Amino acid sequence: MATLEELQVEAAAEIEAAKPLFKQVNNERLEFSASDYDQAITDLANSKWNDQQFGYIQARQEGYGSIADQLDMMYWDGVNGTTVWADHIAQVKSDNPKPA
Question: Which of 26, 61, 70, 99 lies 20 to 30 A from 55 at CA?
Fold first, then answer.
């Protein structure tokens, strides 16, 4: 797992490779100023940090499926004596671990 400082270095390299960047101000296309580039680096690094720290939450929510599907799995597990639902949840958690 990368530190915020490492992600800032990575973000700076990505922004540098993307230059020139432009913004629209009063219907005028202007290249980013030095402070705009600094802010872009900060924003990109923070976005990467948030994805690293909290991205697993969205991935798990998408992987779990709907509540209706989970309830159906639980019902059929009870009827059939299987563990499909528990196995599914364990697999989603395994595929999308919490960061250390």
Answer: 70
Tens-of-pLDDT digits for all 100 residues of the chain?
A: 899 999 999 999 999 999 999 999 999 999 999 999 999 999 999 999 999 999 999 999 999 999 999 999 999 999 999 999 999 999 999 999 998 7
CA distance 55 to 90: 18
Task: Determine the distance from the C-alpha atom of residue 16 to the mean position of all C-alpha atoms in its chain, rounded to a whole number.
Answer: 23
Q: What does the alpha-carbon distance between residue 96 and residue 90 come to, in Å, rounded to a whole number?
A: 10
Does the pTM surpass 0.85? The reply is no
